[in-house]
Amino acid sequence: MELETLYDLYLHELRDLYSAEQQLIKALPKMSEAATNRQLSAGFNQHLQQTKQHARRLEQIFERLEESGRGPKCEGMEGLIAEGDKMVKENAEDEVRDAGLIAAAQRVEHYEIAGYGCARTYAKLLGDKTGARLLDTTLKEESQTDKKLTKLAKSAINLDAIYVPRAGKENSDSSLTQKVKKLMAKLASY
Q1: Residues 6+ away with beta carbon under 8 Å from 168
Q2: pTM, whole model, 2 decimals?
């Protein structure tokens, strides 16, 4: 597809987002299974359902525009998912892997936020009010997911990963661990 107009770019962005969502639908169950923190696993499962809705919204836009959603594979999402998959397979302590999974998930969210923001702007400029509204709804959900991940990381998962005893070493000072966790929780509130 040659990009000659903003409408062409809008379609290109929509197709890229659609490909990204389809890839994410396949990746989220793996991330959920790899997460050992129950809240994180449940969050990935919840976001899977939300991601399916995001794809449906894009399909609605394509139908309204009488355009196909078929396009090239989103290489950006492919790379982000590959990074997340490496974290899933990483030889790491559970708490540390969970922290890494949050980092990988937030990279995905930030990528999607950028894409949906651009597509919404194009929709507004092109007078596609319904498309802009649907894209804005998804954009808000992606932002909320990012905030939930941040809250979970700051309140629990990153704190749990601060002090994980190295293999073969006993944690002789659990009070030190508790002090570090309290300090980190206090810092996280800033």
Answers
A1: none
A2: 0.84
